[in-house]
Amino acid sequence: MYYPKSQIKTALxxxxxxxxxxxxxxxxxxxxxxxxKGQFFTGKNPNDTPSVALVPxxxxxxxxxxxxxxxxxxxxxxxxxxxxxKPGLSPQITHPKxxxxxxxxxxxxxxxxxKTNQSIYYETSxxxxxxxxxxxxxxxxxxxxxxSLTWQITGDEDQVYKTNRNIVLITEKEQMLPGFRKIxxxxxxxxxxx
Length: 194
What we know:
Distance between the termini: 42 Å
Strand order of the largest sheet: 1-2-3-4
Largest sheet: 4 strands, antiparallel, barrel
Number of strands: 7
Shape: globular
Radius of gyration: 21 Å
Helix content: 10-25%
Number of helices: 4
Order of helices and strands: EEEEHHEEHEH
Oligomer: single chain
């Protein structure tokens, strides 16, 4: 893929405490580059192949300025609306039940969430998913990433298994969700009816 020079930072270097390779989950040490979407890849630049996606190990990266040592949050004056604000709730774990209409259609949408700083996933409701997407203050949207996927529940059994497995693997890769497939425990026929 071609990137204009203005949209990438090249020849960056990490000592191995910032990233893990997406494919092996091993800590990465060496040159990397960054695109304008905030994604990181191995190599000095996009032409340095093979270019493998990197997953940040920490939420704060070294490019962000750190606070001076004598900095104290106690010296800051926060507005009352920040101090008085009640933190939102965490998204709730739910177990969906497809409706008869879903079975007639053959698919239904499943909603998941991931903790932004850890590879912890669980299934949640459409309501909580929508709140996370809208950054609703009634939910801790800063701490969770919303995920949705279409789940096949009718049809040829082998085809349903393959389709659902492929959807999970593609979602994991495209959204950079290390370990997402593990929560399914190879049960890609969940909710299936012939």
